[in-house]
Design brief:
Layout (H helix, E strand, L loop, with lengths): L1 E6 L4 E8 L1 H15 L15 H8 L5 H20 L8 E6 L6 E8 L13 E2 L8 H14 L2 E5 L9 E10 L2 E14 L21 E7 L13 E15 L5 H7 L5 H35 L6 H21 L4 H8 L3 H28 L6 H14 L4 H7 L2 H22 L2 E2 L1
Parallel strand pairs: 5-11
Antiparallel strand pairs: 1-2, 2-4, 3-4, 6-10, 7-8, 7-10, 9-10
Helix pairs in contact: 1-3, 4-6, 5-6, 6-9, 6-12, 7-9, 9-12
Amino acid sequence: MSLQVEKLEKNMAKLTIEVSAEELEKALQTAYNKQKSKISIPGFRKGKVPRQMIEKMYGAEIFYDDAANALIPKAYSDAYDECELEIASQPKIDIVQIEKGKPFIFTAEVAVKPEVTLGEYKGLKVDKVSNRVTQKEIEAKLQEEAEKNARTITVEDRPVQDGDEVILDFEGFVDGEAFEGGKGENYPLTIGSGSFIPGFEEQLVGVNSGEEKEVKVTFPEDYHAEDLKGKEAVFKCMIHEIKAKELPEIDDEFAAEVSEFDTLDEYKADIKAKIKEQKESEGKTKQENQAVEQAVANATMEIPDAMIDTQARQMLDDFARRMQQQGLTMEQYCQFTGQTTDKMLEDLKPQAVNRIQTRLVLEAIAKAENIEISDEKLDEEINKMAEMYKMEADKLKEYMGEDEKKQMKEDMAVQEAVTFLVENAVTE
């Protein structure tokens, strides 16, 4: 194999790859062996037709496609390793020459990782992190936990209130005529949930159990049923039962039931610590995002379209895998949502650009600041992974190839670059 590299505009490159005539001949013979059982010529048994005869009748090019498809992956892989370019896209392949007795020549047009010119990345302004926890926040968390542990009781001594659950019959009428889908029996409805037409639930407030109530509403203009859009309707309702939440007393007994603590004070202290930890984590993430966003905005680079296309495709493939894990194919997803993969790819491009820019800038900062990951640090990270996956660290290392370890080091360096940005930022 021989290779020529031509640098193109906008961080693109063209690899011209030549495979010897001998290698092409081997691939043609393999293609013949693969196809011969499918070719019939009068006078010959199936699978016994000589290659020369097939080529005479159908032309030598009958085997070209299979031969090319067999040669291109390895030849391109060898060229990828040899060219020493930082290729950042899938190749666009064009066949230049394929002819029996001659070298096989094809080109691969690829995007090359662009150079980044860094702007200001030290002294960036980020928000100050506040981990102050108020009594109100602690009480809200306690109330939330109490709501989770509430029991439902039937209410008989008062009318419906906001937040109650009612069991009701209803039937809807438009212009005096009942309409399809407007009837329900023993239907559970939580008042204030907003699950019914706007204005419906509010009109049930004040109604007692066993009472009837006419509810007058107007269907929204964007209602899903075309014949009901904007129409006035009357619902005849009967309240069968009113249910309310009974919250537990928030005391030591409550704390012991819902937590690992014996007293309410201990439980409150734990809630405070967790809220504080959450605020610190969220604040740190916010600072990181602010610093990275500014560093990217201050940098300049020219990203080739092919690189963006490749990134968008990877993101779509990741999405497809997540859908598959939920038992849904991309075809089904597109049917349900009315989307197309082409439209989804186009919609993903701005996000793809942001991801590429962010990665390139952080890599450039890591390089500029000589941020390198030692073998010891890598081992520490692998040990953490092993602990998470309940594996022996040595076993995990065995499964990891050198390329995977190199990628881990690069990812860790990028994360340290983020930390560097925040450490060298100015809080305000």
